[in-house]
Amino acid sequence: MSSPGSNADDQLPAVDERLVAPGTRYEIDDGKLVYVPPSDPPHAICNANLAWLLQAHVAPEFQVAVDMLTRTSKIDDIAPDASVFPRAPHPQTGGRQLEQIAFEVASTQSLADAGRKAGKLATRGVRRVFAIDLERTRVLEWSRPLETWSILDSTTSIEDPVFAVPIPIEALLQTISADDAVATALLARQQRIIQAHLQAATEQGELRGELKGRAEGRIEGRIDGRIEGRIDGRIDGRIGALFAILAARGLVPSAAQRDQISRERELERLDRWIVRATVCTSVDELLAS
User: For the chain, which has fewer Cβ within 10 Å, the N-terminal or C-terminal residue?
Assistant: First the structure.
């Protein structure tokens, strides 16, 4: 068998060689033309949620696609609900490379139908194929040796080289906020817009602290006023960054918790809180000893 996406084996067409016209609602399954109807709300909403999560978690060298046709054999031209494939073209063919991960949302189609599609994708060389079972609220992964689905623990995450950050399965099932998962992923990836806002908050805090220190130094006539101001500025900057991370993740401190954070003067503890804020599930967890 050829390497995924290549033309080295004459028995397999290129993954981007079409049997059906792109942009239509058709697939070729076992040589037969199959109409793929539009999605109902649960399926369509899950598709949108899935694409958003994949885009936030994917590694820079990979690309996310929705309903992208893949030629799995001479008689099959099928489109998973979502997939992840390398951005770089195939080194031999110059066409696109085969997806490494694919997702199917099972609502209108049965798991058996999704399994048939998963088997064909896996045979072509797709490394991992997942199904989101909306009716039973679970995520499954296709087992190539067993040729059947394996249920995944909903409290775990999907880890894979195509992802810069693991995807929480609960976010795929929409049992936790996708906003939290996306915000956590973007923070972990140090997304430039978020980093710019955090840096601006830090710099503003440092500037306020330095001005405060200079004023105190003049009033009290002490040289160390500026030093104290710089320390206060670093503290204020970290507190501002911490509140920004919590806000991005939808975690709202109570009045007492906000007061506790605002009164904290130890830089090391603030640094630990900032790291913990990217993964904690509540402000109580953040502030726990």
Answer: C
Class of the domain covering 26-176: alpha beta
Which tokens hold the place of 13? 């067409």
CB 278 within 8 A of CB 182: no
Contact 33, 26 (CB under 8 A): yes
- d(CA 73, CA 234) in angstroms, rounded, equals 60
The domain segmentation of the chain, as residue ranges, is 26-176, 190-287
Nearest C-alpha neighbor of 278 from the set 238, 255, 247, 253: 247
> How many helices and strands (H and E) does the chain possess?
9, 12
Above 70 in pLDDT, residue 107? yes
Report if pTM > 0.70: no
* Segments of 68-110 assigned E as strands: 70-73, 76-78, 82-86, 101-106
Amino acid at 197: H
C-alpha distance across the termini of the chain, in Å:
55
Range with the poorest average pLDDT among 3-7, 197-201, 207-211 = 3-7
Distances (CA, A) of 22 to 105, 182, 268: 20, 30, 55
Contact 235, 265 (CB under 8 A): yes
- Chain position carrying tokens 């995807």: 167
Return the closest-CA partner of residue 114 out of 89, 149, 165: 149
What number of other Cβ atoms are within 10 A of residue 85's Cβ?
A: 23
